[in-house]
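Need a sequence for this fold. Nothing fancy.
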């Protein structure tokens, strides 16, 4: 479709506008432009594609999904042409892959780089979304798709004195593209989540000294990363359909199945052997040893104790080992990291651990970090403190829907969506992997492909049936939110009060469990059923005939007891 410009306002007019050029935005552009023939434009803050992977260039940054599953499966040609080199791809390789896809599909010509969206306002009279950028550019479109990612809004804690620090400060999610030279530097790293666990070994290998300020002790399973064998590469090329079938039939979207057994089904000796084998295989496959690890606290305790004992066996200094193993939450109730020699790093002479639960950080001075136990002189501070997850990237844009309702106000008590795809009061706006969808509890490309294809099919349905606007019915949205809560409460996931799944890492953020814990398989079935019923739970209007409140029925969802084993 041709792109037009309103000469009176300079507004560029499209059928669809997509915010973000990561995995989601690239595929959404391909679907709308090349499959539906719509005029579509991607607006991207960065000067290149990649999304989360564009910004997360910190030392050791790599994916925790296995490479043969961390890919688009919509194109057999792309699957056959691209070859991964490692079990867990590193950030530069993922960037090469996404650039390869963007070039292969000629996507970059419809991506506006170096363009940060400041606001998006729904014009009800015109049934158009009007978008303004920080530099004053104006865009308009019938459909607005936010593909801003779940982990793209860096969270830097408000520590007194931060601005006074005379050295250099970096956040792992906003890493300099030229890299950072730690040679001869005294480095302080705050945070021991997934990024901190990946970064610490690499920083330690270069720095004069690394001090890790541990806020929350964490489990981690070795990745056992390495080059892919020729045999495995051949297997990937020859079994795409089988791999895809496994990813689409498991609750977490990974290319392996969760064992069909509970912890209590086996004797303690056999259980230990199962854990040992899972440890040797490594990665997120450890989570698949038993199906009830996130459903039963007693079952989880067996995995937790096994992993704590592994920490004690790896770390040579008993005092340091106990600080690392003093974990206060069930295994995998927070995102379970995988690592390359993380715990071994604390056996180095140039690495020390500070337990800031016992001795909290009080302030930052020009020369270092002060805790209750004293000051630690530093040249560099690395914040591995995570993100304002899931809602932060969306609320960073001033989004205003129907009747002047802002998304910030609509979500003041926590995010509410229908399927993680739509929000009542925001017509023709779709959120890819939004709150209320499996998103971060799933291998992301699997969730992204499902979302993008569902949105594409919905827009195609609207255009084929003369439907001009569609939005979530408030009652349907409330029912879905209740179902998301029920699904979470059937697991151990909400039990961790300091989890970023609940937004607990961001001061003042409402404590709401955000992802859908019912499993990707069940979620896909729910979405397919809703579409098959004419987009049940949505208000639709077209040709000036409202088929909204009376024309949208609201179904019920499966009870919490029926949910799948949750994914991670």
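Here you go.
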């Amino acid at each position: 479709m041709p792109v037009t410009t309103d000469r009176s306002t300079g507004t560029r007019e499209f059928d669809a506008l997509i915010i973000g050029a990561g995995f989601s935005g690239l595929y959404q552009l391909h679907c709308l432009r090349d499959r539906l023939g719509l005029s579509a434009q991607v607006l991207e803050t960065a000067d290149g594609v990649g999304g989360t992977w564009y910004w997360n260039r910190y030392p050791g940054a790599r994916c925790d999904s296995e490479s043969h599953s961390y890919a688009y499966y919509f194109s057999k040609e792309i699957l056959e042409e691209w070859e991964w080199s490692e079990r867990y791809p590193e950030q530069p390789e993922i960037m090469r892959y996404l650039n390869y896809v963007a070039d292969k599909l000629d996507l970059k010509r419809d991506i506006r780089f170096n363009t940060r969206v400041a606001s998006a306002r729904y014009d009800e009279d015109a049934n158009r979304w009007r978008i303004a950028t920080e530099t004053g550019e104006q865009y308009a479109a019938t459909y607005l798709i936010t593909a801003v990612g779940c982990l793209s809004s860096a969270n830097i804690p408000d520590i007194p004195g931060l601005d006074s620090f005379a050295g250099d400060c970096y956040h792992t999610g906003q890493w300099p593209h030229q890299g950072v030279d730690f040679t001869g530097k005294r480095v302080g790293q705050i945070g021991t989540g997934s990024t901190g666990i990946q970064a610490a070994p690499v920083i330690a290998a270069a720095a004069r000294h690394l001090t890790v300020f541990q806020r929350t002790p964490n489990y981690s399973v070795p990745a056992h990363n390495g080059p892919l064998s020729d045999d495995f590469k051949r297997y990937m090329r020859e079994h795409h359909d089988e791999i895809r079938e496994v990813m689409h039939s498991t609750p977490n979207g990974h290319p392996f199945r969760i064992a069909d057994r509970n912890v209590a089904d086996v004797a303690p000796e056999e259980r230990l052997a199962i854990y040992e084998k899972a440890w040797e295989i490594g990665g997120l496959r450890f989570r698949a040893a038993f199906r009830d690890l996130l459903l039963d606290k007693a079952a989880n305790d067996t995995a937790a104790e096994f992993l704590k004992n592994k920490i004690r066996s790896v770390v040579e200094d008993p005092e340091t080992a106990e600080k690392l193993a003093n974990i206060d939450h069930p295994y995998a109730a927070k995102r379970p990291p995988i690592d390359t020699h993380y715990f071994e790093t604390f056996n180095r002479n140039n690495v020390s651990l500070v337990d800031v639960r016992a001795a909290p950080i009080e302030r930052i001075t020009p020369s270092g970090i002060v805790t209750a136990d004293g000051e630690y002189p530093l040249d560099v501070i690395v914040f591995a403190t995570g993100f304002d997850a899931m809602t932060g990237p969306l609320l960073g844009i001033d989004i205003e829907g129907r009747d002047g309702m802002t998304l910030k106000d609509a979500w003041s008590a926590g995010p509410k969506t229908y399927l993680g795809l739509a929000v009542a009061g925001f017509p023709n706006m779709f959120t890819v992997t939004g709150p209320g969808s499996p998103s971060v509890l799933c291998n992301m490309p699997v969730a992204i492909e499902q979302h993008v294809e569902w949105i594409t099919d919905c827009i195609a349905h609207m255009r084929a049936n003369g439907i001009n606007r569609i939005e979530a019915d408030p009652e349907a949205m409330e029912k879905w939110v209740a179902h998301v809560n029920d699904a979470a409460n059937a697991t151990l996931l909400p039990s961790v009060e300091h989890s970023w799944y609940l937004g607990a890492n961001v001061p003042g953020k409402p404590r709401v469990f955000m992802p859908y814990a019912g499993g990707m398989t069940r979620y896909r079935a729910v979405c397919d059923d809703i579409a098959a019923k004419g987009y049940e739970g949505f208000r639709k209007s077209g040709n000036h005939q409202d088929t909204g409140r009376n024309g949208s029925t609201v179904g019920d969802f499966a009870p919490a007891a029926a949910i799948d084993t949750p994914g991670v």
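For context: Residues 544-551 have pLDDT under 50 and may be disordered.
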